[in-house]
Design goal:
The strands form three sheets. The protein has a six-stranded mixed sheet, sandwiched between helices. Strands 3-6-7 form a three-stranded antiparallel sheet, with no helix packed on it. Strands 4-5 form a two-stranded antiparallel ribbon. The longest helix is centred in the C-terminal third of the chain and has 14 residues. It is about 40% helix and about 15% strand. Helix 3 crosses helix 5, helix 6 packs antiparallel against helix 7 and helix 6 packs across helix 8. It is α/β, with parallel strands linked by helices.
Length: about 300
């Protein structure tokens, strides 16, 4: 009698394979010392890396002076050193291969093919460019790329450097249009809880994206005092911060599966409240429309959770 797993329809078996072979938190795309992009297991401690200049220093007993390594630190301040020439690719062991011969044959070369991929840009490398480069490497193997990714996160994207000659956004958007089932989350530096214009910028960008009504409905759930006049005032502040031509080029006609999020991975209410209190345009809106600070905090939390 065949094993119970093999008596299931192929669609269900594929779901089981996807569940077993997907890393709990996905993988991170990094470059080794030879410039080759590799995927390593995602670690909670490196979800937000910030680059440090290459210095002669010791981290966890590793002397980096002259070493083909890179030193980073996380937002929490913990140091993290990666030996780029020794980073291992994703675990190649097929967790199902030893079940039986028939199953081993069926899952031959089926390694980590289903994953969330996070692109991080420590140092001065734009992660949008990093993502575009990764997608470009699969131009001749689109089927393999589709099998590899179930979602992407582009962290620390620096949209302030983009212009019409920059192809990276267009390349990522093209991937999104071709793969509507793959959610792509962009954490952009133009959106941050450290910027008092977070909500105005979000409203303005949502307008450019054609997603304004969705965001307004979410804002109204946070405060019944949200009205057309307040929305217009916020959009005006956002337009001043993010010029129209720049916003149209960067965000206009964005694919629906490409969502924009603030650059931080989590919302810090204390930081956001402090920022609000020092931002005169937003304080003016709060006073003129009698919108409480708590309502803006709730709106910001919603954006951090659902994006634009």
């Amino acid at each position: 009698m065949a094993p119970y797993l093999l008596t299931l329809p192929g669609e269900i078996r594929n779901q089981i394979y996807e569940y077993v072979l997907t890393k709990p938190n996905g993988v991170v795309c990094v470059k080794d010392s030879h410039g080759v992009s590799r995927l390593i297991n995602y670690k909670e401690d490196i979800k937000s890396l910030w680059g440090i200049d290459r210095l002669s220093c010791v981290v966890d007993g590793m002397q980096e002076n002259g070493d083909p390594g890179r030193l980073h630190e996380t937002e929490s301040g913990r140091a993290y050193a990666e030996k780029l020439d020794k980073i291992e690719p994703p675990e190649e062991t097929n967790h199902l291969r030893y079940v039986n011969k028939q199953l081993k044959k069926e899952t031959h070369k089926l390694v980590v093919r289903f994953n969330l991929i996070t692109f991080i840009s420590p140092g001065d490398t734009d992660s949008m460019a990093k993502c575009a480069e990764f997608l470009r490497s699969y131009t001749q193997r689109p089927a393999r790329l589709q099998a590899l990714i179930v979602g992407m996160t582009i962290s620390n994207a620096d949209s302030s450097t983009y212009d019409e000659a920059n192809p990276f956004v267009k390349e990522v958007q093209a991937f999104c249009y071709a793969n509507p089932q793959v959610p792509v989350h962009v954490r952009d530096n133009v959106l941050s809880q450290t910027l008092g214009q977070l909500l105005p910028n979000c409203l303005w960008i949502a307008y450019v994206l054609g997603r304004e009504m969705e965001l307004i409905q979410r804002m109204k759930k946070c405060s019944a005092k949200t009205n057309e006049a307040m929305i217009a005032r916020m959009k005006l502040v956002g337009r001043t911060s993010v010029p129209f031509e720049y916003a149209r080029q960067l965000f206009g006609s964005g694919p629906p599966n490409m969502r924009y999020f603030p650059r931080e991975t989590s919302f810090d209410e204390i930081v956001f409240r402090n920022t609000l209190r020092h931002d005169l345009p937003v304080q003016s809106i709060l006073q003129d429309f009698d919108i409480g600070e708590d309502a803006l905090v709730e709106m910001a939390e919603d954006i951090y959770e659902k994006g634009l």
